[in-house]
Amino acid sequence: MTTLPVRSPIGTSSGAKQRRELSDRAIVNLFIWPTLILLIAWNVFPLFYSLYLAFTDYSAIANRPPTWVGFGNFADILTDRQAWKYFATTGRYALVTVGMQLILGFGLALLVREKFRGSGVITTLILVPMMISPVVVGLFWKLMYNPTFGYFNYLLGFSDPRFGPDMLAGRFAGQPVPNLALWAVALVDIWMWSPFVMLLALSGLKAIPDYLYEAAAIDRASSWFQFWRITLPQVAPLLLIAVLFRTIEAFKAFDLVMGMTGGGPGDQTELIAVNLYRQAFQGQWRTGRASALAYIILIIIIAVSNLYIRYLNRMRGENA
Amino acid sequence: MTTSFYEQGPARPITESIRVDKISPRARWLGKFRALLVIVFALIGLIPIFVMGMTAFKTRAEVVSVPPKVIFSPTLEGFVFLFTERAVASPARIEQLRAEARVGELNLFERIALASGQEITGPSDYVRRLVNSLIIAGISTVFSVVLGLFAAYAFSRFEVKGKNDLLFFILSTRMLPAVVVTIPLFLMYRQLALHDTHLGMILLYTVFNLSLSVWLLKGFIDEIPREYEDAALVDGYTRMQAFFKIVLPQAMTGIAATTVFCLIFAWNEYAFALMLTSDKARTAPPSIATMLGRGGIEWSAIAAGSLGFLIPVVIVAFALRNYLLRGVTFGAIRQ
């Protein structure tokens, strides 16, 4: 800490000083508005424009102006069995990836919580997967999963491609296995983002005051009891934030899946964001319908986030 | 060899009471086991990165060899392919090279041309794309951290009307799938002449990262006790001075952690870069992915490109690791 030069507020030429100082209100405006203006400029136009498109039959490549179709797109999507199936796939994907990331991330955080020699470097090495571009990750796992020259099968001990799994094609020894491709993609997501949950959980663990454990030790509380009554409740808010961010991302999961399977085989890995991309671009160019679908996704994400945030605020209230 | 105090005991007999042996043997053993477990996890997690590294130094044939090779003689073919544009060499040229090879007067490029049947025609775009990535990700990271810091401070310290709604609005800008936003953004950028410009991409990534930056930094600033600033204000500091001299140094951990996150996102972003740039401002991720296109998958070139692209972020992350590991708390924990 640097020492502060003491200046007397009384006796200086206060009139001149007052003019140079900014009022608190001015500071608030000065500090907040640049951010808000940028966010509004870059988000509000696209948001409203795509909301408008959601009510039209616009196609980005057709050479005609959009015509108003009211709630047609929404009704069309909500009565479409395929769309419901993609939502179900996304839900399963989100549940498995976020759940596993939570378990692995929190477990790793508990392991690296206390320092050992080189723990800083090793923890940073664990973080490397989340620093790679998702597109590149998708490409490399495609190489890893390759049934003939990929490393994945060999590491699992399947040296003959005819009898080993072909993860991304959803087959095992030539026989189709339902959802294998989806779990293969989920595994990559888990590999990539567990470190993120670990990082957040680690911050939470480090912020737990020692006196809580000391008090528990004096009371001869078992380490099991300490974990359930001190560690978990104290870290829970951060775990919840990690889960919130990962759930949002799972509903937006696109680059990774696109790079690995493109939604296939069949529609096994057709997550809702992948389907959205297909409708908006690849061959279909149904911009209006895609926008409507995007709004449905947005509403789901906002609803889920609100639940999380409400729960988080309640937890904060209890801890404070 | 260093010998552990625990195994050897003290060098001199202990004549007074010192409490060196508070760690029980069981806890010590568990600690070692824990460290080992962490290292094993880290190594398993790094396997794909090892594969990337190995692939970068393999030849085309070695990449697709069955079974996959772990031991091979490394070549720089992937890197040469990465940095160059190539065309298929004519049969006559191949014959000529063979003849020269018999005499034994081939340089590195000619040897590669003979081995792959492709003649080098000029440098590739890779370096330009990498420079674009550096400019766009670097500047946008600075912007989003600085703007985010100011906004986070204001949200943390002052009464702002509709604060919770504003904060939720800021977070919600991250919720819409990028694919949908790109169509209106594409139209907007064409109107404003921002398409395929550095400025356009910098502003876009700044906005893209602002929500995370505000949320993260607000958490850090919430944890800095207000009393420090109040004391400074009593001592005659202005708000601005208190902000720059008291809050800023205290928030360094948060600023460093936020910088790493913003950099990772801006550096790796793919969907916007693919659709809103074409050549002048195109960043590396779309160009690495499009290396797929030309005549089969050049795995070694892709691996070399990805490796070169990964290294800058890893360097920054390692340089700032102490801040990164110390705390990304989103203000969720208050004492």
Order of helices and strands of chain B: HHHHEHHEHHHHHHHHHHH
Q: Rg of chain B from C-alpha positions?
A: 28 Å
Task: Output the helix-strand order of chain A.
Answer: HHHHHHHEEEHHHHHH
The chain pair forming the largest interface, with residue counts per chain, is: A-B, 109 and 100 residues
CATH topology of the largest domain in chain B: MetI-like fold
Helical stretch count of chain A?
13
- The secondary-structure class of chain A comes to mainly alpha
CATH architecture of chain A: Orthogonal Bundle
Number of E-state strands of chain B: 2
Gap between N and C termini of chain B, in Å?
45 Å
Average pLDDT value of chain A?
84
Helix count of chain B?
17
- CATH domain topology of chain A: MetI-like fold
Count of discrete domains of chain A: 1
Largest sheet of chain A: 3 strands, antiparallel
Kindly estimate the percentage of residues of chain B that lie in beta strands according to DSSP: under 5%
Number of domains of chain B: 2
Strand order of the largest sheet of chain A: 1-2-3
Which sequence of strands runs across the widest sheet of chain B?
1-2
The secondary-structure class of chain B comes to: mainly alpha
How do the strands and helices of this protein lay out in sequence?
The complex is a heterodimer of chains A (320) and B (335).
Chain A: H1 14-20, H2 24-54, H3 72-78, H4 81-112, H5 119-127, H6 134-145, H7 151-156, E1 165-166, E2 171-172, E3 175-176, H8 180-206, H9 210-218, H10 223-252, H11 255-260, H12 272-280, H13 287-319
Helix pairs in contact in A: 2-13, 3-13, 4-8, 4-10, 8-10, 10-13, 12-13
Chain B: H1 5-8, H2 25-56, H3 60-63, H4 77-83, E1 84-88, H5 91-103, H6 108-116, E2 118-123, H7 126-157, H8 163-172, H9 178-191, H10 198-222, H11 226-234, H12 239-250, H13 252-268, H14 271-276, H15 284-290, H16 299-319, H17 321-326
Antiparallel strand pairs in B: 1-2
Helix pairs in contact in B: 2-16, 4-16, 5-6, 7-10, 7-13, 8-10, 10-13, 11-12, 15-16
